[in-house]
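Supplementary Methods S3. Complex input for the iron/sulfur cluster-bound model.
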Amino acid sequence: MRIAIASGKGGTGKTSISVLLAKYLSFESGQEVDFLDCDCEAPNGHIFFQVHLTPLKTVNIFTPKVDTSKCTFCGKCSEICRFNAITVLGNKVAMTFPELCHGCYGCFRVCESGAIKEDPRRIGKVYAGRHEDGATRIHLVQGVLRIGEAMSPPLIKAVLEEGEASSNLVAVTDCPPGTSCPVVTSIKGADLVVIVAESSPFGLHDAAILTKVVRRLGLTFAIVANKVLDENTLIHEWCAKEGYRYLGGIPFSPDFSMEYARGGDIFKAAKRMPEIEEVLCRITKMVQER
Ligand code: SF4
Ligand code: SF4
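Predicted complex, serialized as structure tokens:
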């Protein structure tokens, strides 16, 4: 059972809810829970669990290298590449742009001259560690994208594979923010997607886009409103209008935000907010219903 915590934009409180949910599920079940940090550009779940991480593996992707002694400059590789990562100029030059390459092997497959060789590109590393505090146990897996690298989906897949290989029954995925390929990779195959929507017009706009993505993928989802100000029912009313399952609103708390910003004890801060436990409890019930 994998629960993906996603948000249409950054800064909604997605990581806080992921971390709190993993801990809550472990406490309630008495079992170890996988925490899969797929926010590979800025993974920070380990800060709150205070996990010592060790490297598990390096992730590389295919990048083409043209052997000009074999190349006929037919241009087929350039034609098939949707990302303009390989180009042929006249009958002398075949250039590659590794930073644009998605590692799809398209050029490799269409090249009839065997002129394309593999030039592996390191995109990042997967780390893992364990947190245990007597009442809860978390197995944390994290992807860290190499600085300057933009291609996170293969690294996210590697993190998810570690989760699949784990013997734990429940996994919480902290997804990257937004609605593009890294998010799609992170939520694909999840049993439940919890969309954390910041209670603001911007938050609503981006949550609405993410909801379209999740529906397109045919995934079960529910919405949580975060950073709710007094009498602000924006997200709740939107869910009611659209017929989306609403799991509750968490009020904006400067106390909680301060604790988060300094990487402090957000579990203690959360205890002072009953709305958080209500939301976690509703997510758990939804998981049990499935
Ligand atoms: S498909 Fe192969 S032979 Fe044709 S231009 Fe590309 S590398 Fe050269
Ligand atoms: S592997 Fe795919 S993305 Fe990369 S250069 Fe070849 S066709 Fe383009």
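DSSP finds eleven helices and 13 strands in the chain. The first strand starts at residue 2 and ends at 6.
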